[in-house]
Predict the structure.
Amino acid sequence: MPEDKSGENVTEAQIAVHWKEEETYAPPTSFIAQANMTDEDVLERFGEQNFPNCFKEYADMLDWYEYWTKTLDTSKPPFWRWFVGGKLNACYNCVDRHLPKYKNKTALHFVPEPENEAIHHMTYQELYVKVNEFAMLLRDFCGLKRGDRVTLHMPMTAELPITMLACARLGIIHSQVFSGFSGKACADRIVDSGSHVLITEDAYYRSGKLLDHKVKADIAVAEAEKEGQKVDKVLIWQRYPGKYSAKTPLVEGRDFIVNDILPKYLGAKVEPEKMNSEDVLFLMYTSGTTGKPKGAQHSTGGYMAYVTGTSKYIQDIHPEDVYWCMADIGWITGHSYIVYGPLALAASSVIFEGVPTYPDAGRPWRVAEELDVNIFHTSPTAIRALRRVGPDEPAKYNYNFKHMTTVGEPIEPEVWRWYYNVVGKKKAVIVDTWWQTETGGFLCSTVPAIHKMKPGSAGPGVPGIYPEILDDNGQPLPRGSNKAGNIVIRNPWPGLMQTIWHDDERFVRQYYERYCADKNSTDWHDWPYFAGDGAVEAPDGYFRILGRIDDVINVAGHRLGTKELESAALMVPEIGEAAVVPVPDPIKGRLPHVFVSLKPGIQASKEIEQKVSDTLAAEIGPIAKPGRVWIVPDMPKTRSGKIMRRVLAAVASGQDTGDTTTLANPEVVEKIKSLA
Ligand code: PRX
């Protein structure tokens, strides 16, 4: 643990906190005039005195086959059960129920990366037809049924939400893997979820290149089989229907082009399954502190209620809006706030295939102008990149945002102000939404027509969420003290994952063990949710998030486990030891730097550095490409043999390494510094 100036031990989170209080901004009156939620009573209604029944307000935004009998069952903490006894179908809520009023309205706008390709607008009626046909194919051709798991490794095309909704219609649990991830990473998720079917796409565009994506399916299936999980069928959507765009050949009897089989099911209709509120809707894998990614298991009723409610009140989505969340559906943001939340509210949701800055930094604003997007949702990473390469681009385009979101990492106040002044043209409200894969939906954010905005701060807990900051011993820090500690959510909420797939023990250990007051208690007050982030609370009750307190690196808004990266580096035969640390990066927030020591007798070389970098990209995906690979003579270690990552991080970021005299090998620090 590092020491502060007084010589006392402080936590990692506490070091960073010397910010000045930022100015606040009032929501524009034009926004308030049309907002879904302007009534301050909502804060009272969702106050602790009305918990858990307050969440009925969200559940009532859905259609239920059977209404629930109990709002929250706490009998087996921390396995909370929401809307017990209720039955519903997520696909029905996102598609069928909108037909009487909105069948001719666009559900999805698919924006291909090449600008000479027309934007494809799909109505709710078309979505309904396609989802039904594909659901029938899943049922009859693949033999899939309620409760089965299916892995999706799909890029950002309209076929991805179609596939998810078709699964949801039948009660099949989907597990979508980010398309940028490697075949190997996909295989690990196939194995963990026990999927027999993989659904992919032949190709997609990225930065002007049509990438062969099918090649990853071959690797995924082969690797999964090595680990004992056989994939019987690979379904391949085509980027250009009727034309196969990958170079990789099909495997006879295993690979099937969706568009070849689909004609058999033209016009087919499948009744939506009546799912229990507590049935699993999907798995979303995320990095943790140990190597193995964990499958956050999300429910049907609680999750759908929570994402629908927050999409309405925080995202301010109305059916008339054109809503564009520029995240990838391969992450939780895309599941909750491109697909399930917006579609449950009958919005028109934009699916963008490309890279925001390709072919130039004006692209997002051209899309916004063409589609008349009025709600825009992205990450600090994208905002930083657009600001760096095209600071004056937004002014050139005639679009009108009423609402903008930032999500995924803390946003620097300077960057926030550019977003507000230049992208939003001072007319759009901004919400900075803090949450996680595990939490299903937002935890902290302003309610956009009610609260003032404050650059760099997410805001108070959203309605029905009661956050608090605890010190390392579990004592609450005084409210509004601006002191850093670990943020927890004191209460359960409907969007929270149910468990980690097949690993209840890890779920309890990771999120509850640390601060549980009494393991035998069935009172939720004794079970605060440990988010793993450091945060401070200002006197106005706004939370400012400082970042992860465990060893997970947040690259461009995506969590990568250091252990995962280190194990990948160790696959290079020359490497003896590896340690990965986060280093601040002006665009991506953090970049992993990899420190490796070589096996005896091996000479350092540029080739080895390259090999490490390539292996990380191949094993995990290009997102894991290190900022730098350092070949060091040895790792700085404590006397008990633990690698001192803090020292490595300080060297890599050009900071003072502090006191290293207590190390087992202090002399090595100077040698490492000389490599900088
Ligand atoms: O550290 C927090 C950061 O991202 C982590 C969650 O990452 P992931 O599960 O991949 O989900 C990202 C999208 C919800 C959090 O533990 N984080 C997320 N949103 C914010 C944030 N940090 C600061 N401000 C945010 N708005």
